[in-house]
Each structure stands twice: as structure tokens, then as C-alpha cells.
Amino acid sequence: MHQKFFSQIAKLYHRELSLAFPNAPSKEIHWHLHLAVSSMLGALAQHRRLRDFTEGVCSEEEVGEMINRLIRFVTHGFINGINSSPTE
Question: Can you give the residue ranges of every domain in the chain?
Fold first, then answer.
């Protein structure tokens, strides 16, 4: 199912990320793209448990805030991970 629905978009993202990070090995881009997508899917799938997980400090109604934080988190993680990855 993943191959059928996501392979073309994954290839597109990989190509664009390869242009943005020309010195990054293809394998690292694949790994970091996988981790970025997994982080986003996990956060979106689990956001209804946020209030319980944070003992009321954060709320699942704060969707816009969650999305903004998620974008910053994944972006920084991707960039820092790529820049600190060993070269092939």
C-alpha cells in the first residue's frame, strides 16, 4: 500500500531534498525523510492524548500551535541530522 500511494511523492521529496542538500548521501536523505514523516504522522495520530500525556499543560485543541511546533521540530531535526551525518 505504501509503495502504491506514496512512492511517487517520496521520490519527488527525495529529489528536492537532494538539491537542497547536495553533499548529503542519498541513504541519509532517505533515512531523514523517513524519520521526518514518521514524526509528523505519529504526532498527528496521537494528538488526542496530549492533554493526558502533559497532565493538562498542553491541549489537543491547540492544533495550529502543534503544527507550527512540529514543523520547527522536524525541520531542525532534519537539517541538523543531515549536517552531522557521516559521509559515504
Answer: 26-88
Q: Pick from 56, 82, 59: which is nearest to 69 by CA?
A: 59
State yes or no: pLDDT of 88 exceeds 80.
Answer: no
75 band by pLDDT with thresholds 50, 70 and 90: very high
Contacts (Cβ under 8 Å, ≥6 apart) of 47: 60, 63, 66
24: helix, strand or coil? coil
Residue 32 CB contacts under 8 Å (≥ 6 apart), including other chains? 17, 77, 78, 81, 82, 85
Distance CA 3, CA 51 (A): 34
Query: In the block, which residue shows the cell 538539491?
Result: 19
